[in-house]
Amino acid sequence: MLKPACRRMDCDATCRALAEGCRPRRCRGERSKFNIDTSVRDITVCLMATSLPDRHAGSIVRLRDEQTSLTRHRILDAVVRILATNVADLSVEAVARESGVSRPTIYRYFRTKRDMVEAVGQLYAERIGTDAAFNATDLEQLLALVPAIFARYDDLEPELRTAAMRSETREASARRRSERLELSRRLLEPELRGVAAADRERVAQVMTLLMSSAALQSMRANLELSPGQAGELVEWTVRRLIADVINQSGARR
C-alpha cells in the first residue's frame, strides 16, 4: 500500500520529489509555492515520487519527460501559428497568450526569439525527413530518398510550411543549408574523383538546389509534377550532370 504524501508538502520533501519536472519557485523551509503552469498531472507525479518504491522511479521519470515534451510542443505549435500569420507579432508575450503557457515556463525552453525560430526550422526538417538524408552513405541512397522527402513536404500542415518558408526561419536555418551542401560534396566525391575542384563544387551546388523545397515548389507550379515525378527528375538531372562533367573532364585531359 502506498504511503500518502505529506499534506504539508514541506520544502525538503518537495524538492526531492519534484527534481527537474516540477520545481518550486522558492525553497525557504516553508510551504512550497508552485509555478502557475504546474498541472494536476504534474502534481500527481510529484506526490507519487515521494512514496513510490525505487523500482517505479523509471516510470516517474518517463512520465515527467513526456510532460516536458508536451509542454515544449505546445509552445512550439504556438510559435508556428504566429510565424504563419504575421512574423512581426512573434514575441514571448504573444507565444504565452497563444499557447496558454506562462512566460517563465517559455524561457525554460526557449531563451530568445531566435531559439524559437530555429526550433521551427528543426521541426520542419524532422517532419520532411531530411535527417534521414544526412545519414545517407552514398549517392544512390540519397537520391532514393528524394521522392519520399518531397512527398512529406506536400503532406505538411499548411501553417508549418508557411512558417518554415519565412525569411526569418530560413535565415536562422543557414547552418542546415551549409550542412546540406557539405553532404552533397561528400557523396559526390567518389563519383567525381579526378574532376577539377571547381566543377565538383558546381555539381554539388546544383544537386543541393535541386533537392530543396524551393525546387519542389517550382516544379509543382511550373511543371505540375507530383512529388514522385519531381524526385525522378532530380535523379535524372543529377546523373546526367555527373556523366557530362566526367566526359568533359576526360576530353580536357
Report on the structure:
The protein has 253 residues and is mainly α. The chain has three domains: 11-61, no CATH class; 70-121, Arc Repressor Mutant, subunit A (Orthogonal Bundle), CATH 1.10.10; 130-252. Helices cover 71% and strands 0% of the residues. It contains 14 helices and no strands. The chain has helices at 11-18, 40-49, 57-85, 92-99, 103-109, 113-128, 130-134, 139-155, 158-165, 167-172, 174-188, 197-210, 213-223, 227-252. α3 (57-85) packs across α4 (92-99), α3 crosses α6 (113-128) and α11 packs across α12. It is elongated, with a radius of gyration of 25 Å. Residues 1-41 have low confidence and may be disordered.
Give the N-terminus to C-terminus distance in angstroms: 84 Å
Taking pLDDT < 50 over at least 5 consecutive residues as the criterion, the unreliable ranges are: 1-41
Report the β-strand fraction as a percent range. Answer: under 5%
Number of domains: 3
In percent, how helical is the residue content? over 70%
Judged by helices, strands and strand pairing, the structural class is mainly alpha
| Arithmetic mean pLDDT | 78
Q: Major β-sheet, in short?
A: none
Radius of gyration: 25 Å
Number of strands: 0
